[in-house]
Design brief:
It is a single chain. By secondary structure, this protein is mainly α. It is built from 9 helices and no strands. The radius of gyration is 21 Å and the shape is flat.
């Protein structure tokens, strides 16, 4: 059965709208769960958030496959396609984290970000940037799948890890600047309630720091491989391994920030507040590297974006 391009795009648009709705509902469900004090998977309890995120992951994957079939090339040739792929990668990272850690509160941090990325791609980008177009000569290479896929997976992992670090800073600041005893009704159970609250908060902070470190440690090798594969591809396409293009320069800055993060944890034994500050800086740098540089519309990586 042959599907026309118009029908394919209509189906893709419908899928993206469904994804936005499911992500919004997923985010609300995670917030409600945590608000009710359900931080972990409950036995004999239907976890709507996890199931909904699985459905979103499948729908985004199907959307990418559909676009691949319609365009006849790997769907990473412009900003819209890369954002959809980033959304799918973020859902994969989320599902892995939640499955391994058996915690629900992770969704309160990751779901809003995935919703924002998906909404930005589906509703903010102009229709011209969402259209399927032919590949320019520089992108007609097998390196497109290798380099761009690995870079976006690294971005997804690094963004997820940095989000946990930012959450660490927010919760840490709240617990240190707020008189926790005032948040409970004064009674004979006040002391016990405070101790339970502080114990649970300390556990969450420890998990945030640990998960952030592990996820960033996963994303850093992908970032390294992505930069190296990009250098090889650049030599084939433009005759130079490195040309100090704005995207290349910020990719190097991103690599250095996270190299410093891992170095201070490995060698200096940093953890907690110090590491989270570096990771929070890395969060900003990743977004500058991915989106901010392209707002300039300059350099060898500016095609198919905001030009």
């Amino acid at each position: 059965m042959i599907i026309s391009l118009e029908t394919s795009l209509a189906i893709e648009n419908f899928i993206n709208n469904i994804c936005f709705i499911t992500l919004f509902m997923t985010m609300l469900f995670y917030w409600i769960q945590v608000g009710l004090g359900q931080f972990d998977f409950q036995k004999n309890y239907f976890n709507f958030g996890f199931i909904s995120m699985c459905c979103t992951n499948f729908l985004l994957f199907f959307s990418l496959i559909l676009r691949w079939k319609s365009s006849q090339h790997f769907p990473l040739s412009n900003l819209y396609e890369s954002l959809i792929f980033l959304s799918w990668s973020l859902t994969c990272i989320h599902l892995i984290i939640q499955f391994v850690t058996k915690t629900n509160w992770i969704g309160c941090i990751t779901a809003p970000t995935i919703l924002f990325v998906n909404g930005f791609a589906s509703f903010y980008l102009p229709a011209q940037l969402q259209k399927i177009g032919p590949l320019i000569p520089a992108l007609k290479s097998n390196w497109l799948m290798m380099h761009v896929t690995v870079m976006l997976v690294s971005y997804a992992a690094l963004i997820s890890g940095c989000l946990l670090a930012i959450a660490f800073l927010i919760i840490y600041s709240f617990t240190k600047t707020t008189d926790i005893s005032k948040t409970f009704i004064v009674s004979t159970k006040t002391i016990n309630s405070r101790l339970i609250f502080e114990t649970q908060t300390d556990k969450i902070l420890q998990n945030l720091d640990n998960f952030s470190y592990r996820i960033i440690g996963l994303g850093f090798p992908f970032l390294t491989i992505g930069i190296l594969s990009g250098a090889v591809w650049a030599n084939e396409a433009w005759g130079s391994y490195w040309s100090w293009d704005p995207k290349e320069t910020w990719a190097l800055i991103t690599w250095l920030i996270f190299a410093i993060y891992l170095h201070t944890r490995f060698i200096r034994g940093w953890s907690g507040i110090k590491s989270s500050i570096i990771a929070s800086l890395g969060f900003i740098v990743v977004w500058i590297c991915y989106l901010g540089v392209n707002l300039l519309g300059k350099g060898l990586h500016s095609y198919g974006w905001f030009t």
